[in-house]
Amino acid sequence: MRVKKVTLNDLEATYCCMSELPPDHRWIEALPESREWFKANLGKHVEGYHLLDGDRVVGHIYYAASERALLPYEIEPRVACIYCTEMLQDYVHKGHGKMMFDYMKNDLKEQGFKGIMIPATDFKEWMHYELFLKQGFQVIQEHAPYKVMYFPLLNQSIDIKVLPLNYKPSRDKVEVTLFNNFFCPVAVYMYHLMKKVAQAFGDKVKIVEIDTTPETVRRYGIADPLINGKIKLFGPASEEDVKKTIQEEIKQFEC
Fold this sequence. Notes:
This protein has helices at residues 31-41, 96-110, 129-133, 185-200, 214-220, 239-254; strands at residues 2-5, 47-53, 56-65, 73-75, 79-87, 115-121, 138-143, 146-152, 160-162, 174-179, 205-210, 226-227. By secondary structure, the protein is an alpha+beta fold. It is globular and about 55 Å long.
């Protein structure tokens, strides 16, 4: 087992989490777009580490420096901000996660990073905060469903502020606002699903697509899809749920 930094030569091995899904799973079709995003943004808005068993990637940590991270927080410079971390099921509870995190901590400290932050969640299925408590992280702020966690490297504490949602939708009709943050294959899938469902409503719905950059994330305080300026869906949702949610907003708009 070994850990290495992600380079352009590793693109076809990114997102090892997708390898545990059935080949016909709906998220798999979004994987090429995420890998293209990764290729275009490596060294700018994303960096990473891979855990390898031989030549096989079995775990990953993807992050960005706070100055360039696509996260809705105001964070002082030189803080590593983790987007996601994953370990294949056959490798959990065997000390491999500690190995990967220890490598990352040592490497980032050598690079002069002050510390590492994670927007962990209350969801057992995704980035659950208890996983990071085991790696020495501590909760420093909470805003449901997130728990902002921190591990000090050179600084025991950092300045961090949760950015408020600050997006004003159209007033003439229901608006579906889509941020093209294609880092995660699930986000890519939801982007296209919500666009398709919104288009089916014809002129009752206005679709606004926004490039996801550090500037737009800080301006609007969000990089996730909105319906009439509100976070109505969190994470993956079914087509029926998306349709129902938009219908509810149309009904309220027409009242």
